[in-house]
C-alpha cells in the first residue's frame, strides 16, 4: 500500500508491467508538461507537498496524480495567491476530506462514525474558508491602499501646471 503523505488515498503500487506504471514520467518530462522548473518539483517534494515514486537508482517518477497535485499547487498560488505554507494546509485538508469521503461511503462505517466524520469535514471546510477569507481581506486592504495612492497621484497631476519640471512631480509621488 502507498501510505506516503501527499496522496489523497492509499493505493497499491502497480506491478512493473501494468499500464499505470507506463504513465510515470521523469522529472524533466513532468516539469515540461507542467511548465515548472525541475527545481520547483524538487522543492515541492522537499516541503512534502508531493511525493513522487523513486526508482531503485533514486530517479523521481511522477504519476498522473502527482502531476495533478502540482497543477493544484500552481492553481492555488495563481488563483488565491497562497504561499507554500498555506498551500500545504489546503492540501492536507483536501487529503483528509478525501479520506473522510472514502470512509464515510464504506458500507462498514457506522452511523455514529459517519456523524463524527461529517462534523470533522465541516470543521475542515470552515478552517479552509477562514484561510481564504483572511487572504481576501488582505487583498481588499491592499487594493484600498493602492486606490488611495492612485487618488493622491491624480490629485497631484491635477495641481501641476505645464511649467513644473517632471523631476518635481516624481519626487512628490514617492512620498
Fold and architecture overview:
This protein has 175 residues and is mainly alpha-helical. Helices cover 66% and strands 2% of the residues. The protein has helices at 19-22, 27-34, 38-46, 64-80, 84-104, 111-159, 166-173; strands spanning 53-54, 60-61. The chain has a two-stranded antiparallel ribbon with strand order 1-2. A hairpin with a 5-residue loop joins strand 1 and strand 2. The radius of gyration is 24 Å and the shape is flat.
Briefly note the structural class of the backbone. mainly alpha
Low confidence ranges:
1-15
Radius of gyration (Å): 24 Å
- Termini gap: 60 Å
| CATH architecture group name of the largest domain | Orthogonal Bundle
Strand-residue fraction? under 5%
Look at the structure and give the mean pLDDT.
Answer: 85
In total, how many domains does the architecture comprise?
A: 2
* Largest sheet strand order: 1-2
Helix and strand run: HHHEEHHHH
Under the CATH scheme, which class of the largest domain?
Mainly Alpha
Number of strands: 2
Tertiary shape: flat
Largest sheet: 2 strands, antiparallel
What share of residues is helical? 55-70%
Number of helices: 7
Examine the coordinates and then state which fold CATH places here, giving the name of the CATH topology of the largest domain: Multidrug-efflux Transporter Regulator, Chain: A, Domain 2
Amino acid at each position: 500500500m502507498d501510505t506516503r503523505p501527499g496522496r489523497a488515498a492509499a493505493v497499491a503500487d502497480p506491478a512493473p508491467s501494468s499500464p499505470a506504471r507506463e504513465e510515470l514520467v521523469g522529472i524533466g518530462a513532468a516539469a515540461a508538461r507542467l511548465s515548472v522548473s525541475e527545481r520547483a518539483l524538487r522543492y515541492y517534494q522537499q516541503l512534502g507537498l508531493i511525493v513522487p515514486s523513486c526508482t531503485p537508482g533514486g530517479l523521481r517518477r511522477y504519476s498522473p496524480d502527482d502531476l495533478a497535485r502540482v497543477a493544484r499547487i500552481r492553481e492555488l498560488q495563481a488563483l488565491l495567491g497562497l504561499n507554500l505554507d498555506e498551500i500545504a494546509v489546503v492540501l492536507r485538508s483536501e487529503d483528509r476530506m478525501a479520506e473522510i469521503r472514502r470512509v464515510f461511503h464504506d458500507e462498514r462505517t457506522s452511523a455514529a462514525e459517519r456523524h463524527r466524520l461529517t462534523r470533522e469535514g465541516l470543521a475542515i471546510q470552515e478552517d479552509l474558508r477562514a484561510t481564504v477569507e483572511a487572504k481576501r481581506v488582505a487583498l481588499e486592504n491592499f487594493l484600498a491602499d493602492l486606490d488611495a495612492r492612485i487618488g493622491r497621484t491624480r490629485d497631484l497631476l491635477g495641481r501641476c501646471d505645464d511649467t513644473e519640471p517632471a523631476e518635481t512631480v516624481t519626487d512628490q509621488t514617492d512620498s
